[in-house]
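FIELD: query
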Amino acid sequence: MESEHSGTVIDALTGGRKGLLLQMSDSSDGKTRLVFEIPSRGLLGFQSEIATATRGTAVVNHLFVENREYAGLIGGVEKGKIVSNDNGKANLYSLANIAKRGVLFVDAGETVYSGMVIGENSRAGDMEVNPVRAKETSNVRSQNKEEKLYVPPATKYSIEELIGYMNDDEVMEVTPKSVRLRKAELDSGVRERAARVRKKQMKSLQQAKPKK
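FIELD: result
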């Protein structure tokens, strides 16, 4: 890969992925070779992530070394998700507005349902949206305005990529025709109550004084 991206790769593998840098060598043509030892779980989803970060210049090869003791939890900062709160077909008008707030995983016309993850939020935390809602009609023609709507092509993940991308409260839905990410609990009200309980538990743990 190009030497300018070596720092990005090192940060990506030695952080939440539990990698250990063993060797780093530079060549005269501006390339860098990095050798790591890393748990196999730490490579899930790494291929696509690093291809984007290095603009496709990185070549990843891996070889199984041996079985070792459990290295602990693998993961970094959880990504905030865009979650549908309605059932039906995604509407172009709604998606055009939602796309301003993150990256979409669905295209206009795709079937969505409540609790389905349809994108990644540009900010921390999950955001619930209605991708089915169409624009309110009126007697005024707005054909020219409708033609200006633009939604970037949806980002699609493979099964391996989703395994490394999904959060603890999410599951993967695999069918012969599609691979989707959804919340384990589809009911938004139940999810909100569970989130409040977890928040209280974390606050209690932080406030608890250690025993002498």
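FIELD: remark
The domain at 81-195 is CATH 2.40.50.250 (OB fold (Dihydrolipoamide Acetyltransferase, E2P)).
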